[in-house]
Fold these 3 entries.
Entry 1:
Amino acid sequence: MRFDPQQDDRSGTGCVTRRGFLHSGAVGVGGLAGIGLLGPGVVFAKRRHGPRPIPGGFDENFQPVPKHPVIHLLAPGIGSEMSTITDLNGIVGGSEIRGIAHGSDGSTYDFDADMRFMRGTYVGLDRRVHHGTFGFI
């Protein structure tokens, strides 16, 4: 490996720059670290013990419905169910942030973000008790 600060790494000479070496190393280490997160259940989306969602939510037109919703969540607010998991015994935290965003082209957009997290024990779809942490953005 040769280092020549005057030569561009895209010149096709085959030299490896410090930047390219560090980038390749970071990608390799990140890939190896991520392998442990991708078990067969995650890769093939097998969730035998996933949580049971709340019965109500919104239909395809974003109208609240008490049963068989497309989206299993309710609008945030005082007195509203903030959890999206049935049979959860734990902590639920949430935040709704509203404002105006400014685009790089000078246009403005309304901004509304509903973020929640749930942590605790729950009865899963397999009818067994599990512990987990979930987030909704």
Note: Residues 92 and 118 are 5 Å apart (CA to CA).
Entry 2:
Amino acid sequence: MFYGRYDHTLDSKKRLTLPARFREKHPGSQGGQVWFLTRGYDDCIFMFTPPQYEEFVDRMEEDEISMESMDFHREFFGSTSEVTTDSQGRVLLPDHLLELAGVSKSVVVLGVRSRIEIWDLGRHGDHSKSFEADDQYRQQFRKIYTRRTKRGSE
């Protein structure tokens, strides 16, 4: 499971050094780890290990065939890139994903359970503010916590 926030800066070649904690959770060896990058939700880049990517793709197979699902599949798979870490734990972020997510030089790297999200620092700040953090966060937390404690008491 991935969790935590890390502020990083892309180097001049648009490479991101992955947090060591995230590299340690990858099922592959430390050098040459394969990751899948794709267009995320809310103007960020999603990053998956191969097993997590396959699991996400398997869930897409359950979609009914429709124009919306076909368009989504085209966009999702068309924007996906397979990248490999170098010996220093860096990955090259593709230009098309940097542009889609509005990523410049300063980024926020978030662990979000089964995936990693890469955000432009400014966009992440704007998104956090628009979340109306206190009220929406509390409501969602209360909903999840209540559901979990009800299950535990049965």
Note: The first strand starts at residue 2 and ends at 9.
Entry 3:
Amino acid sequence: MKSKHFERLPKCFCGMTYDGPWMINDAAKDNPYQYNGKELNLDHGLNLSDYGARYYDPSIGRWGQVDPLAEAAPEWSPYVYTFNSPISHTDPTGMMGLSIATRIINEQTKEEFEINDGYDFNWIVSNAIFNRIKSNGEIPSDLKSEWNWEFWRQVWKGVVTSDGSASDEITAYLITDNLE
């Protein structure tokens, strides 16, 4: 017995062939750059994402080739992506996962300490704060608001310098430390 509900579902539940309202725009249909900005290679009907070093098959969520740098991390499968942690790691080339971390930098000694928290961010702090964070292994709760402020200040600064669309008053308010 056939169900009309199942007949309306896409051929592939992974999202590769589903034509929803977001596909009305021809530009969306013709865009070969998909997840992670990687080009979807349609050659031979295989529909693989080209990461440069190897191809990713989104229909099964697996790589088709061994990681070329697999010997550098023998404890991991050679087919693994971002050490099975795509929130705190990235793999832009398909060669080796990279940590996404807040780098705490001691302003006096320039020593660095990384916290694998999923934020690609440099925070320059005093020697005392650096030592507290390093001994704690994470940002202490009483410093979270200061970290948050500095993170968003840097994000805003990057947005302003990339397209220049923010007004001078907003920029001065958010970028400087002279808040009232």
Note: Confidence is low (pLDDT under 50) at residues 1-16.
